[in-house]
Amino acid sequence: MMRIPMRCTFLVAWPALLAFGQGPLLEESSFRGEPSGWKTWSPRTELSPRMHVDDRYSRGGPGALAISGGGVPGASGRWEKSVGNIKPGSWYRLTAWYRAEGLRDEANAVLCRLAWADANGRNAGQPEYAWETIAEGDWRRLTVAAPAPSRASSALIQLWLHNASTGSIWWDDIRLEEIPKPGPRNVTVAAVRYRPGKSSGREENIRLFTEMVEKQIPGNVDLILLPEGMTMVGTGAKYADVAEPVPGGPTTKALSELAKKRKAWIVAGVYERESNVIYNTAILVDREGRYAGKYRKVYLPREEIEGGLTPGDDYPVFQTDFGRVGIMICWDVQFTDPARALALKGAELILLPIWDGNLTLTHARAIENSVFLAASSYGMPSLILDPMGETIAASKANGTAALATIDLNRRYEWDWLGEMRGRFMREVRLDVPVRRPAPGSN
Known about the structure:
Number of helices: 9
Number of strands: 26
Shape: elongated
Radius of gyration: 25 Å
């Protein structure tokens, strides 16, 4: 199992960059006195932090663009520079390094944006938020890549300190460059909609699901999603009757053989035994039939608690050969935090083995986290959703599958909000504690 940090990187080959032949539109790592072309801005004078050039820290040449809260309540302000020669429809990447000290909540206080203006200096589109982060010592690199809107003729680099009465930030090594448009990153997903009839037990269920996949799922699929509890449904068995080791049990073995034969990743829900503990678990197997990891259901409904299941305690994200996936199981979809945790860890596609559930909440999890979501169910339709919550494919008939090819590099933009993945990453508030009421309180 591989867990990854909350980041992703647009990879651009060096020869492709050379084809542009102009080098970066802006590249600055040395600041002195009044830095050329840079302006300071604050929403209100009374919120203005101290913004100055500081020689205390730097990554390249001497000096950095510094912003300090200075004890001002709600201090908020930014350095900003306009860069011209922007071509509508062309792709640009902004990279900026920062170092922060004394901030109460760095994730929300530090903000790097790429905004756009038309030939008259008016707003030409929604800003793009940098959230892809890499650490190097005490410095952090933020990057964002996006196409210029149709009316854009200049780009505005905006480097903020926001809502930070204490602490300071230093910005350095700032670069804006034109890059090739990222190509598609397609993955074909099959979300199975199959509930066996009366079955003799776990082994027969494994056989029935395998036969269904062989007959109904085409050969060019990258990922096959099976439902929750596939080893127990229709058997009349109890959790303990079908629980098995993961990996090492018969279901992992059978799924591995099927995945290797189909050259597809497979996710399926089983019941896992570890010593005297039983989990509701989803297994991930790669194209070569290798066990790649598992997720143990965190939120258990009362029936599973009363049936003796134990909840999991982690939200792992897995790297595949096409992108990053996270897994939830059934009752997890009732709550906001499982999908949010997976998105923050970098999941681009959330996989949901589910018995049955609330379709509205299923769509909401895709929308609020701006991720693709696929669900395999016995009750509600099996479906594949895009990051705006729209249904790409759905299947209601038993023995069928929702099938779709999705492009993980495709941008999804709301007309009045812009691309929400970056905004979600930068604006989600995890610093405000959520606590249960104290026992006995009203």
